[in-house]
Write a structure and sequence with these properties.
With 191 residues, this protein is an alpha/beta fold. The chain is built from 6 helices and 5 strands. The chain folds into 2 domains: 142 residues, Rossmann fold; 41 residues, no CATH class. Helices cover 43% and strands 16% of the residues. About 5% of the residues have low confidence.
Length: 191
Amino acid sequence: MRRREFIAFVGGMAGAWPFAARAQQPGKLRRIGELAFAEDNREGQARAAAFREGLQKLGWMEGRNIQIDTRWAVPGDAESTERFAKEIVTLQPELILSYSTPTTQALLRATRTIPIVFANISDPLGSGFVASFARPGGNVTGFTNMEPTMAGKWVELLREIAPRVGRVAMLFHPGTARLSAVSTHETDRVG
């Protein structure tokens, strides 16, 4: 499915669901999968709550016209992440929401047909989730939380607030922050 078709599908589904839900038989629910980290993590809970609140504002009520199947993987436990990704795919949701690079990787290994929407991903292009920003391709699209040139802005801001700083170090996790090479290039450019 191409990106425009996917976005049109998701947008059309979101817009049509309230009308379609009224016409459906009672008990017929739309199903959404959600793969997140750390059920006891406040940030994870806040994201899940914001997602449900946004759906509710659009007329989607859990138990009435949608069912959200959430699985909470353990951060750093690739086995649980893979297991929960497969479990969600087995439930055959119409859409899966993913909140991190590792959960998106696991979901893409589990399915190439169910649409996946990611959020909070640093480098969807470098991670291989999308072919390009203009034309992601495949069954995945979403939102990035990082743009490589921001790293140069960080150094510029640091210079403004602490002009005597002579050396800056940046730490990246190579498995989840493939933008590190681009980011360090940007910091070197302004450095």
